[in-house]
Design brief:
five-stranded antiparallel β-sheet, 5 strands, single chain, mainly beta, 80 residues
Length: 80
Amino acid sequence: MFTIEHDFDATVVTLIDEGSTPLQEDITINAFEDCITVEQYDARLDKVQKITFSLSQVQELAAALDLPEGVYKLRPADQD
């Protein structure tokens, strides 16, 4: 299950882990104008861990999900 909310400066997607145990903590993805953050509560440390992606890193991650093992570099769209 997931939720989508539109805040003033970001779109927030929350991924809720459902099903059989062991379940993971919810993941919150914040899409800002210039970056994407991914947050998840870490019970061992009793704090939220955050990772920040630049927009180019998000584009590379999206491309990587459909590619086989290897090393790649994306070309700008205007160089096709």
